[in-house]
Amino acid sequence: MKKENAKKEKIRTSVLEKLREIMESDGEVSDEEQVRFDSMERTLNDLSREPSRSEVRLMLTSMSKVDGVADFAESAIIKKFMQSLPEEPPKANEGEKSDLPDNINPDTLQSTRELHIDGEAQIEVKDLNLRYGSAQALFDVSIPIEKNSVTSLIGPSGCGKSTLLRCLNRMNDLIPICNFDGSIVYDGDDINKSGTDLVRLRRKIGMVFQKPNPFPKSVFDNVSYGVQLHYNPSRRKMNEIVEKSLTSAALWGEVSDRLHELGTSLSGGQQQRLCIARTIAVEPDVILMDEPCSALDPIATAKIEDLITQLKEHFTVVIVTHSMSQAMRVSDYTAFMFLGRLIEFDKTDKIFNNPGNELTDRYISGRFG
Ligand SMILES: Nc1ncnc2c1ncn2[C@@H]1O[C@H](COP(=O)(O)OP(=O)(O)OP(=O)(O)O)[C@@H](O)[C@H]1O
Ligand SMILES: [Mg+2]
Predict the structure, then answer these.
(1) Which is the closest atom of ligand 1 to the Cα of 291?
(2) In terms of residue numbers, what domain contains 22?
(3) Do the Cβ atoms of 301 and 330 come closer than 8 Å?
(4) Closest ligand to Cα 39
(5) Is residue 101 part of a domain?
(6) Closest ligand 1 atom to the C-alpha of 49?
């Protein structure tokens, strides 16, 4: 059995290495490729969940826009990997009983309908259900996102935070086994409707990932790249946009004399602020951040937290975080998720000082999760 696991592990590691190599071979890993890769990586890493052969095959097909992946999908290494996977699809993944605090029956858990905000909603999620294949990951989730505020999504690993975040700019569309219903109203329109302009949507609702992922281009080009694609401004205007975006991302002072150095040569914290500048440059309304500080040291984290507080003056921010103190420091509203349900949503102060739900109380006081 041990030998079998070691063999599987060896194949799995070489699959991931090979995929990363293919992804990086054309120099640039776009946000969409990054989502595809993360999704693939999760499936491969999550071997305890035993992805089925067809799921892995689907994942690879979904990545086939990346040059080389289609050939790789047919390669001997993948065939070997497939053979190490079970034939049957996994069972519905609605949380193991052993993950649950005592006395919780998942069948009786429901997403809350108490969803008050003081100001205007920038986004309104209503009755969102989402499945990966047969496994349901979100259950009747509704949540309003207040304009020019910071909303944190918290909850134990696997509760659906990233899934909900990715719904807000339809990034889950890149995962072929994913299907959903319910509405997400942004700018007066339901973005879940077919015909939504996804390029525009992802410009207006930008995303910053866990690992900083600057392009292997200069600092200047990292920021100007998306602007060029969308607006093609004059050189003078572009210089202004780059300076303004780097200033808004609290990075200008540190890189104004390094604009032509590679973005990848900056420190981790600077790279993450460069990615934020890149997102800001195309003038979004909303910035989604999935654990933006988890790869950073405490000083770089403090800088990003300060930045988030400044950003809400001009943008609406939704952040996924595992750090409760971070949620307390940066956010106006906090949503606690558990097993794909949105258990409680309220002002951050209320959630952390006087939660209305016993599960929230247990989670924030570290009694599970
Ligand atoms: N691409 C995918 N394909 C299949 N299942 C997925 C995929 N992404 C997430 N899931 C499953 O959906 C559920 C919710 O996952 P999600 O990544 O949204 O959780 P999370 O709260 O962000 O967890 P973490 O804190 O570990 O990042 C989990 O059961 C996970 O295994
Ligand atoms: Mg996550």
Answers:
(1) 27
(2) 2-83
(3) no
(4) 1
(5) no
(6) 31
Ligand 1 in reach of 172 Cβ (< 6 A): no
Taking CA atoms only, the protein residue closest to ligand 1 atom 5 is 132
Say yes or no: 115 and 31 in one domain: no
Q: Which has the closest alpha carbon to 211: 23, 47, 14, 66?
A: 23
Q: Are residues 156 and 290 in the same domain?
A: yes
Ligand 1 atom closest to the CA of 156, numbered from 1: 25
Number of domains in the chain: 2
Q: Write down the pTM of the prediction.
A: 0.79
Which residues make beta-bridge pairs with 206?
287
127 CA from centroid of ligand 2 (Å): 21
Residues 64 and 147 in one domain: no
Closest residue by Cα to atom 28, ligand 1, is 158
The answer, yes or no, to whether any atom of ligand 1 lies below 6 A from the CB of 159, is yes
Is the minimum distance from the CB of 158 to ligand 1 under 6 angstroms? yes
Q: Answer whether 93 contacts ligand 1 (Cβ < 6 A).
A: yes
CA nearest ligand 1 atom 12, residue: 137
Q: What pLDDT tens digit does each residue of the chain (369 aa) get?
A: 566 666 666 666 777 777 777 767 666 667 666 766 666 666 566 544 555 565 566 566 555 545 566 666 667 677 667 677 665 444 344 444 344 566 677 778 999 999 999 999 999 999 999 999 989 999 999 999 999 999 999 999 999 999 999 999 999 988 888 999 999 999 999 999 999 999 999 999 999 998 898 999 999 999 999 999 888 999 999 999 999 999 999 999 999 999 999 999 999 999 999 999 999 999 999 999 999 998 888 888 999 999 999 999 999 999 999 999 999 999 999 999 999 999 999 999 999 999 999 999 999 988 777
